[in-house]
Sequence to fold (255 residues):
Amino acid sequence: MTLIAVTRAVSPSLADCELTHLERVPLDVGVAEAQHAAYESLLHTLGATIVRAPAAPELPDAVFIEDTAVVLDEVAVITRPGALARRAESMGVEPVVQRYRPVVVIDAPGTLDGGDVMRVGRTLYVGRSSRTNDEGIDALQRLVREYGYHVVPTQFSGCLHLKSAVSAVADGVLLMNPTWVAARAFSGCEAIAIDAREPAAANALWIADSVVYSSQYPRTRDTLVRRGLHVAALDYSELAKAEGAVTCCSLVFDA
Ligand code: CIR
Fold:
């Protein structure tokens, strides 16, 4: 089995990205590119083969490839991103994912961003958000039911995507910001709370028994380390200015 991480280049237009909860601040595309290259090489070190989707320089948010597809073991769901300016991103990702999985698509009027989908075993927790609507959640449920996945609509607030509020860091172990999402929504899982001084610290990428994590959140990183997790930290601060985080920039799956 090969571990694949599909990524996409940082667009020169990244500074024109969508922003919802953040103020626009000056953003250095060169630094973002360097951070993204370091991210790809970290994933490679952790055992992933990096497969790049064709660059889309005219689409500012293209690097945040997670939002364009939900890749499950048996099937890949191509999403219909909630932000109009991001809708064309899925098109370039579909042919890449199709090499590995049969593909199904979320149709209008459904919208869904992959960043709102958190998988725990055969359960897909899906955040209702400014990007993901009820039709999108229903469509996902219909598309994946036959493969034995159960979709659980999940409320959260305070951030863009569900996975900014909660993400998996090990089997049945979730890192979360309890002021943005309630731990009781995830029955049977162990909850690790972020350090309250680091509200954006709940996004981590669990890959090959390691946790890829932004060095912007040292207190929460210490909590993860004390819990016995192997944390691979990197500087992702420039992508964070575009409201991105570590899960957003890859689609990771076995092939
Ligand atoms: C957006 O607003 O869509 C982008 N600027 C950031 C997307 C981050 N993606 C993610 O959390 N999955």
In short: The pocket of citrulline is lined by residues 17-18, 20, 61, 64, 66-67, 83, 86, 115, 160-161, 164, 242-245, 248 (CB under 6 Å). The chain has a mean pLDDT of 98. The CA atoms of residues 74 and 146 lie 10 Å apart. Helices lie at 29-45, 89-97, 134-144, 162-165, 218-226, 237-240.
